[in-house]
TrEMBL record:
Transfers mannose from GDP-mannose to dolichol monophosphate to form dolichol phosphate mannose (Dol-P-Man) which is the mannosyl donor in pathways leading to N-glycosylation, glycosyl phosphatidylinositol membrane anchoring, and O-mannosylation of proteins. Belongs to the glycosyltransferase 2 family. This is Dolichol-phosphate mannosyltransferase subunit 1. It comes from Naumovozyma dairenensis (strain ATCC 10597 / BCRC 20456 / CBS 421 / NBRC 0211 / NRRL Y-12639) (Saccharomyces dairenensis). Its EC number is 2.4.1.83. Pfam families: Glycos_transf_2 (PF00535). SUPFAM superfamilies: Nucleotide-diphospho-sugar transferases.
């Protein structure tokens, strides 16, 4: 049966999460959808046994593969590599660490059949972020989300759980995507020629906590995000308006400090 849906998972040192993600994902899809779905891990040469784990799952009949990159590193470029190698017309990206529930994948693909782009959102009634997600991550996340406000009306543009119809990626009008950083969905939302009259799909999900492995968020990733925002502001509003957005960033920095202060004290 032809592959229609592709799930791309950027992964770095995620061996312990590969099996639970794969088994839960295909169980959630059920027999029929599993036949037309592929799962692709894009691993940056973790050398932690991830390759052997995928080979074991392949022998058990799962349609899963792993691309091992030895020359490149980074979440966004790993996702783009997976998207370009994917066979499906409908592409989904999710994290390896089970913070994005595999059980929400069928709803994401359903939504993608009628929307050019779908975002898993943590900001909707009945869902949210696990209470054990660290305080400093909440502050960083809410500040980052506010800073992206001028670029998109999507409720959760920071989400690493998203999907798109492949034809928009292949469109010659698609602009170059920033291969650095963690916020690939934000870049795609800004730069793909998505139809203005068709809304972005949103699927609520509850963001879990990682139980195996470690987060790769670092100071470098935060700096990459700020550079990405600068590029997107210039892309959307033009270089002459940069000064306005520098003022905007300063206001947001003050917001960040105020929020941190109010959460701690
Ligand atoms: N190939 C590859 N994968 C990577 C790299 N860095 C991170 N990843 C993978 O990208 C996924 C997300 O990385 P985490 O380190 O778990 O991210 P996080 O800090 O928990 O951030 C999450 O929350 C953000 C929203 O606040 C999301 O934007 C982000 O995608 C992620 O879901 C994981 O599967 C991880 O293995 C890399 O350099 N290379
Ligand atoms: Mg994570």
């Amino acid at each position: 049966m032809a592959i229609v849906n592709s799930v791309i998972v950027p992964a770095y040192k995620e061996k312990l999460n590969i099996k639970p993600l794969t088994t839960r994902l295909f169980a959630a899809l059920g027999n029929d959808a599993s036949k037309s779905t592929e799962l692709i891990f894009v691993d940056d040469n973790s050398q932690d046994g991830s390759v052997e784990e995928v080979e074991t799952l392949q022998k058990q009949g799962y349609n899963v593969k792993i691309i091992v990159r030895t020359e490149e590193r980074g979440l966004s470029s790993a996702v783009m590599r997976g998207f370009h190698d994917a066979e499906g017309d409908y592409l989904l990206c999710m994290d390896a660490d089970l913070q994005h529930p595999p059980e929400s994948v069928p709803a994401m693909f359903d939504n993608l059949k009628t929307h050019p782009f779908v975002l898993g959102t943590r900001y909707a009634p009945g869902v949210g972020i696990d209470k054990d997600w660290p305080l400093y991550r909440r502050v960083i996340s809410s500040t980052a989300r506010l800073m992206a406000r001028p670029l998109t009306t999507a409720s959760d543009p920071m989400s690493g759980f998203f999907g798109l119809q492949k034809k928009y990626l292949l469109d010659p009008a698609a602009k170059d995507i920033n291969p650095e950083g963690f916020k690939i969905a934000l870049d795609l939302l800004a730069k793909l020629p998505l139809p203005a009259n068709e809304p972005i799909g949103e699927v609520p999900f509850s963001f879990g906590v990682r139980t195996e492995g470690e987060s790769k968020l670092s100071g470098k990733v935060i700096v990459q995000y700020l550079l990405q925002l600068k590029e997107l502001y210039v892309f959307k509003f033009g270089a002459n308006n940069l000064i306005i957005f520098l003022v905007f960033w300063i206001i947001l920095a003050l917001y960040f400090l105020a929020k941190l202060f109010s959460l701690i004290f």
